[in-house]
Write a structure and sequence with these properties.
Blueprint (H helix, E strand, L loop, with lengths): L3 H4 L1 H9 L23 H17 L9 H11 L7 H14 L12 H14 L4 H11 L8 H7 L10 H23 L2 H13 L6 H11 L17
Helix pairs in contact: 3-4, 5-6, 6-7, 10-11
């Protein structure tokens, strides 16, 4: 996964925690957030600008013709690490098609959204929940992104890498639905609300609460913020 999307959040954490640990009390447990103090503010601001660009320019022209959007998206989410050039073209063709399907987390997080996931699997020949979740997030930012830091390290969800591909598709999709449920329950918990408030107090950005949680947890690669067991996957 690309570092760029989330690095800028460290700037907020620097202001809040002065690059050290602060214990916040009042939730179901204590948590601390750390940040490397040598991250430059210029790079952080560049990160949020890229994210906002992607949010604001998805529909300005067909994605397949929007070379700036594609270049920023590829760098932002590290698509070059897992997709060939031809598969990246197919990925954006798929995104362009799906943006006209009115995929909505609130109204339909299962049928059409699953079609997005299966479409990415068909492109890559692999069970690609991570790249699929990133596309879903940019179709509706209420969809959480599955990645190795937030989903795996924090919420203890792991990819299924054994068995028949078709079987793994069904298992991984159901696992993603469970991850969504756990993510939202955590987001609505006292600790989740605390993270959102800290974010809002120090940074004015019109992004979903889902993304605010994602930003904070992703930069916490040392998992100093401990997710209570009730929100973690217990079948690992």
């Amino acid at each position: 996964m690309s570092i760029a999307p989330h690095l800028w959040l460290c700037c907020i954490v620097n202001f809040i925690f002065y690059a050290s640990f602060i214990k916040q009390k009042g939730g179901s447990h204590d948590f601390g957030i750390c940040c490397k103090s040598n991250i430059r503010e210029k790079k952080l601001k560049n990160g949020v600008n890229i994210y906002n660009y992607l949010l604001n320019n998805r529909d300005t022209k067909p994605i397949t013709e929007n070379e700036i959007f594609k270049k920023k998206y590829i760098g932002f989410y590290g698509l070059s690490r897992g997709l060939s050039d031809s598969n990246k073209d197919k990925y954006f063709e798929n995104m362009e098609k799906n943006k006209h399907e009115n995929i909505s987390f609130k109204n339909d997080k299962n049928c059409k959204a699953k079609g997005v996931f299966l479409g990415i699997c068909d492109i890559t020949g692999r069970c690609e929940i991570s790249f699929a979740s990133k596309m879903l997030h940019h179709l509706d930012s209420s969809f959480p992104i599955w990645d190795s830091v937030v989903a795996t390290q924090h919420f203890k969800f792991k990819r299924i890498n054994t068995g028949d591909l078709n079987m793994r598709k069904d298992v991984m999709w159901n696992l993603y639905l469970k991850y969504i449920d756990n993510f939202y329950r955590y987001m609505q918990s006292p600790d989740g609300k605390k993270i959102i408030k800290l974010f809002d107090d120090k940074f004015c950005a019109e992004i979903s609460d889902v993304k605010k949680i994602d930003f904070v947890l992703w930069q916490d690669k040392q998992t100093k913020i401990e997710i209570p067991d009730e929100f973690c996957n217990q079948l690992i």
